[in-house]
Each structure stands twice: as structure tokens, then as C-alpha cells.
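Researcher: I'm preparing a figure for a lab meeting and need a structural model of a single chain. I don't have an experimental structure, so a prediction will have to do for now. The sequence is pasted below. Please return the structure as C-alpha cells so I can convert it later.
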Amino acid sequence: MTQTEIAKKLGTTSQAVSLWLNHEVPAHRVLPICKLLEWEITPHEIRSDIYPNPTDGLPQREL
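Model: Understood. Here is the structure written out cell by cell.
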């Protein structure tokens, strides 16, 4: 998925997405980005400062 596609789906600009990738993703954008990317990237990978454990922020599996 391109930065432009991510921006469009999140209702922001591609410039904002580029800024996040080069600096830091805002906390309120972490989970929406992970969900948008179908959890291929985890919250821990994006912001380990607020999701310190590898499974933090992941949806619970259904049994």
C-alpha cells in the first residue's frame, strides 16, 4: 500500500504520512494504521515506547 493510499484511507495527506515515516507516528494513528495494513505491522513495531511488548495493541484472537 502506498503512502497516498494510506493517507486517503486515514483522511489525511500523503505529506503527513511521509512525516510519520521519517519521524514518529502519532499515538492515535498507530492502531488505525496497523488495522489498515491487516496487522502485518504491529503497534510494537511502530511505537515501542507506548506498546512495549510485542503483542501489545494486537486484537485478541477468536477461539
